[in-house]
Design brief:
The protein folds into 2 domains: about 120 residues, Leucine Dehydrogenase, chain A, domain 1 (Rossmann fold, 3-Layer(aba) Sandwich), CATH 3.40.50; about 140 residues, Rossmann fold. The chain has 12 helices and 12 strands. The structure holds 2'-monophosphoadenosine-5'-diphosphate (ATR).
Length: about 270
Amino acid sequence: MTGRIPLAGVVGSPVGHSKSPTLHGHWLKQYGLPGHYVPLHIEADDFESVIRTLPKAGFVGVNVTVPHKIRALDIADTSSKFAERIGAANMLTFRPDGTIYAENSDSYGFLAHLKQSAPDWRSQDGPVLVLGAGGAARAVVAALIEDGATDVVIANRTASAAEDIASVANCSTVDWSDVGSIIEEMQTIVNTTSLGMTGMPPLPMNLSGLPAGQTVMDLVYAPPETELLARARQAGCTAVDGLGMLLHQAVPGFERWFGVMPEVDAELRRAVLG
Ligand code: ATR
């Protein structure tokens, strides 16, 4: 560190929707720390050149959002195990020696939130169903495997994407159209698709077979209570919302760049929900 006030931010295109400035701003104020966290709109063509100017401008690191997460991993000098496994980075840290270190905190965010919201989710070692096979699903599957889950089943509208993840992570797949018929056998269900989000259709499968006792997590956080979560609650399942993952995935960056491990609490939730 140079003794200057640390600067960090989020880079993306678009970036205006990002909750990261609110989250980090809330924590900087809560802990009374010197520092600033700003949104930076960077087009894809300018990504690498702008990133390389940031350390000189006093930036210690940035979060990375759409569409730069894969490129962020490519330009880094070194990267974490999770970033490698996921094939994308959402954090870049500018080291004093001039090198760039890439990480992905989505797996951390997913597990931290799940463990906080459903502490006994692993009390029976039953199968975990992951719906979707995009970037978020990669992070969820990597986290599940790291945490010792041995039976992870992936279902996706485009079967080849599910098979790609399954072959690398040693999981199984099930046809998208068959999900309704196996849902009862699952111990945990995680929706990583955008279905159920405001403006998108709900998940198409019949959710009436959800048995009490399952843990059901939806990564969708707008609306906060999706149809999947409402059904899960009605059925007596533990319903885990998506906002917490978003909040927890910001923790590693804040700790690395501003030096304090921040709390994810009700006040933070309120700040982010506005
Ligand atoms: P993210 O980074 O949030 O995971 P993504 O990589 O674009 O975003 O992945 C979106 C996921 O939602 C994918 O699994 C996608 O399925 P496909 O691989 O078949 O595209 C899923 N998804 C999006 N819209 C969908 C729809 N209308 N029906 C079913 N699945 C959908």
